[in-house]
Amino acid sequence: MRIVVTGGAGFIGSAVVRHLVLVKGYDVLTVDKLTYAGTLTSLARVDNSPNHRFLKADICDRQTMAEAFDSFRPNRVMHLAAESHVDRSITGAKDFIDTNIVGTFTLLEAARAYWQGLEADEKERFRFLHVSTDEVYGSLGAEGLFTEATPYDPSSPYSAAKAASDHLAKAWARTYGLPVVVSNCSNNYGPYHFPEKLIPLIILNALQGKPLPVYGTGANIRDWLYVEDHARALDLIAERGRVGETYNVGGRNERTNIDVVRQICALMDRHHPAGAPHARLISFVADRPGHNARYAIDATKLETELGWRAEETFETGIERTVQWYLENEWWWAPLRQGYDGSRLGLIGGAAETTESR
After folding, report:
1. Mean predicted confidence (pLDDT) in 122-147
2. Is 7 left (phi over 0), alpha (psi -120 to 50) or beta?
3. Cα–Cα distances in Å, from 230 out to 40, 273, 289, 318, 334?
């Protein structure tokens, strides 16, 4: 099995690559532009694997993508390359349009040209998995869950760009017959998560005695999914998912943001008692523009049709995550030098530290 993983040096992408190479033993070509959020250190565990190779490239580069397909001859493409941070999209939307929309279009076209040239049995075997987010669905009220039939209602430039890319992927399946499968996931967390996002930001700020910023009152709710559970789900969807279908991936772990922050503080009190009590560092800040109130995924289709289950509860996953960051300063310290936790996405440009997606 030969698989191209785009965005494979990023957070979720690197978890997918490690799973495919180290657990499944597949041949993997990781394609990544290595923007600020992509780092080769996230792939350190597969550095010496004979079945892994890396290509630094932009998915918007059609010629390079075509050459990669022709030389590597993949059986699958798992497309995770994307700009993903809501706050950055608010003040820098162009990168999101370029990568998430134009990049997806370019990759779909390169994959289509490659797929059309395959022999019949290889053509039948080929799959293109487009990996997306629950943010395309907008915001939920106090009750209900996002299903695969939920209408799209994106709120931010990030989610709008991802919604557009979802529609492109599905259109290429319907118009050209490209064997596309789409997944939409809830909030991921776990090791190798760039420290602009809520959970790693709170852990590292607490470790360094900095304020722990929480948007608004912290009442916004997210459904949390441990990244290694997500990686297993994506492998399963690519292998057994029905062509043209969408599968929602969620951890069934709804938490308010303030509860997440308090749980991290309690774990930091236990594992890093020198800074206790860490909850004294909590600071409520102005809310994000267009901040969705609640996300929650109904993963019934994935669970019943493909037999996937999340292995980590939020309690087990968040403890593993806190411990990983405490033990792996070698990975996050260089990233903190380039991004110190300053708030992004304020339309007025005020300087303030941030909590994120």
Report:
1. 94
2. left
3. 20, 31, 28, 15, 26
Q: 235 an active-site residue?
A: no
Q: Out of 54-58, 86-90, 170-174, 247-251, which region has the weakest mean confidence (pLDDT)?
A: 86-90
CATH of domain 2-194+225-252+297-312: 3.40.50.720
Q: How far apart are CA 60 and CA 205, in angstroms?
A: 35
The model's pTM is 0.93
pLDDT attached to residue 135? 93
- The 10s digit of each residue's pLDDT in 184-209 is 999 999 999 999 889 999 999 999 99
Please give the Cα distance from 259 to 218 (Å, whole number). 8
* Extended strands (E) in 166-301: 180-185, 187-189, 212-215, 221-226, 246-249, 254-256, 282-285
Set 27, 83, 87, 135: catalytic member:
135
- 135 a catalytic residue: yes
Q: Where are the beta strands (DSSP E) in 43-175?
A: 52-56, 76-79, 127-133
| DSSP secondary structure string for all residues of 150-192 | PPP---SHHHHHHHHHHHHHHHHHHHH---EEEEEE-EEESTT
pLDDT (tens digit per residue) in 224-236? 999 999 999 999 9
Q: Domain-by-domain residue ranges, the chain?
A: 2-194+225-252+297-312
- Catalytic-residue membership of 134: yes
Q: Cα dist. 189→104, 228, 322 in Å? A: 24, 9, 10
Instruction: Judge whether 217 and 282 are in contact, CB under 8 Å.
Output: no
Q: Is the peptide bond before 50 cis (omega within 30 degrees of 0)?
A: no
Cα dihedral: 95, 97, 103, 106 (round 10): -140
Pairing of the two strands 2-6 and 76-79: parallel
User: Which two three-digit tokens encode residue 227?
Assistant: 């990244």
Catalytic site residue from 137, 158, 226, 325: 158
